[in-house]
Amino acid sequence: MAKQAEPKVRGISDVLPKMEFYPDLPRADWKSLVDCMIVISDAKIIETDGDYGKHLAALIKYALQDDVKKEYTCITSGQVVLDKMGKLIALEAAGAGKGFPVAALVIRKDSEVKGRSPYYDLI
Fold first, then answer.
1. Three-class SS of residue 76?
2. In angstroms, rounded to a whole number, what is the distance separating the alpha carbons of residues 99 and 93?
3. How far is Cα 108 from Cα 119, in angstroms, rounded to an integer?
4. d(Cα 67, Cα 57) in Å, to the nearest integer?
5. Of 10, 53, 58, 113, which sees the most CB atoms within 10 A?
6. H-state helical runs in 9-78
């Protein structure tokens, strides 16, 4: 009896994407985008190690609205932006072009909760 070929077991790199996110694009500081209109073309939520343990961050591929041909990447871990990126990623995964690209204004808002730091948002 001929031996049947064993099914190929996928490697972890086949299942989990590499942590590199457009390494060939220039990186920008998220804070430098305040009051800028950007066009977000892709995003990924990752888990990173920080000073206080593990936390989530959004890797964002974008262009300035005035020059959509020049793309950049940045990273941010603000909860408001993370929530919005998560929703856009889910819409994109659902198909029908509902997620990316999307234009947004990056803003910094004072918290309405006394003693809390300002936060970033996309409108």
1. strand
2. 8
3. 6
4. 26
5. 58
6. 12-15
Query: Across the chain, which distance is largest between two alpha carbons, in Å?
Result: 76
Is residue 30 a contact partner of residue 85, using CB atoms and an 8 Å limit?
Answer: no
Going along 4-52, which residue ranges are E strands?
Answer: 37-50
SS in 3 state form for 78-106?
Answer: CHHHHHHHHHHHHHHHHCCCCCCCEEEEE
Q: Which of 109, 103, 60, 114 is nearest to 80 (CA)?
A: 109
- CA–CA gap between residue 12 and residue 10 (Å, rounded): 7
The reply to whether the predicted model has a pTM over 0.85 is no
The identity of residue 69, as a single letter, is K
Write the pLDDT tens digit of every residue in 21-65. Answer: 788 999 999 999 999 999 999 999 998 877 788 889 999 999 999
